[in-house]
Prior knowledge:
By secondary structure, the chain is of the alpha/beta class. The chain has helices spanning 18-26, 41-47, 73-81, 85-93, 123-139, 155-172, 183-191, 211-214, 231-240, 246-263; strands spanning 52-65, 98-99, 146-152, 175-181, 198-204, 266-277, 282-283, 299-300. Strands 2-6-1-5-3-4 form a six-stranded mixed sheet, sandwiched between helices.
Amino acid sequence: DADHVALEGVTYLTVQSPDTELKLYRTGELDITSEVPNTHVAALRDELPAELRITPYLGVYAYAVNMLRLSDRDARTALAMAVDRERITRQVTGAGERPAYGWIPDGMPGYVPARFGWQSLPYAQAATAARELWSSARSRGAAPDSITLCTDASTNHRRTAVALADLWRSALGVQTAIVEIEWGVYLDMRRAPGECDLLRLGWSADFVDPEAFADVFESANPQNTLGYHSERYDSLLSRSRSVTEVTERMRLLSAAETQLLEDVPVIPIFFRVSKHLVGRHVSGAFVNPLGQLPSRDLALRPSPR
Length: 305
């Protein structure tokens, strides 16, 4: 369809900091950003309402658990319960993200997602229950005095990590060391987490189906690098791939997600939205729920912004 492609080429810039990305956009060096700093969302809504694009996105923001270092399920459950997701999405991210009480986002056709059994508890009650679980694990020597949370370096990631550390200190009395690492090192650390107790894990769908999220924690999946193994989880996924009836397939996938949440190898924080700034001189920038922005659809209007 070359006759309908307007651009002769696209230049992509590798920028680690959302703040730097925003500065490049303001100076005209970027026509579209891939991200927006969380601290600027409210101001940009007022300043550049026609250029700020916030759309639903099939993605989850989470922390994967190093199962070798946090092998006790009560300890992992306590960390998950002590996260005030409403507070984080309201005060830290603030762009319309939704609290995540499960691994697979809403919006998959025909799929009823599983959620933590304690989802409906008011946060004060959840925090109290988390404290009891953590104390019980501590008494067995299964919960540490402090934990190490590792994340790739970014102002957005740091804000979330600091909020989590504050919640765990207040609810559980545990101190959290935040280790920020460069992207390439972060990818290596995902394969060998070392002394990281928790490692930031963002995941988005490549296709609109719960399998896009479910297979990440299958024992043989190369993305499952932090030691989670469940024969029941693997069996449910395997069975879901052999049935031809859609309802039964979705039931098996939901049962697998339920097992995953009971084992807590991952602590979901929120379901993401895509946040872009798009110059007024750019047309065809329509982001879909997979976060894709096909350059074949883009065009530049003659007048600058």
